[in-house]
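Example 3.2
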Amino acid sequence: MVKLIGKNKIFCAVFISGRGSNLKSIYKYSRKYSSKINLKLVVSNKSNVEGVKFARKKKIITKIDKFKNKRESEKKILEILVKKKIKLICLAGFMKILSGNFIKKFKGKIVNIHPSLLPKYKGLNTHKRALENKERFSGCSVHYVTEKLDSGKIILQQKVKILKLDTPKKLQKRVLKIENKLYPRAIHKILSAT
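Structure, written as tokens:
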């Protein structure tokens, strides 16, 4: 579990691969007086994405690594995380799977947001699969990251009703709005519990 030292905010890193909508909501939360995090670092495996542009605009230290050699990339990133005294990693649409070794080094300090009501629909294409199975609800889950994909302890979940005319894209849009609210709440919850 993440330890909060006194009233100090802990240093947090967000890992992204795309538009960074959850990064933006985490950043917004980090600026609040009641927030328990200081967003210190953004890591991305893609260089020219909206999330990276946002991080740079906000003057957040940004590290780009294409993960061509996973072992080397993780080694470099771990060094930066230690140097920057990062105590919490938030995966926010990060499309690379971290190794067991990396996860062990940050055990209980890596969280992820997933666009389904876990344990249902782990992995990709969650909205398409939920619609094909005629689910009544979809949603999102914030969970701890373990070596097993999308299987860590759930911190918070929220349901989203599936509508008759939903397409994967329409459903994704509505779930994303909920994700943006749920992720900061989950961060606050885990850090308030310590």
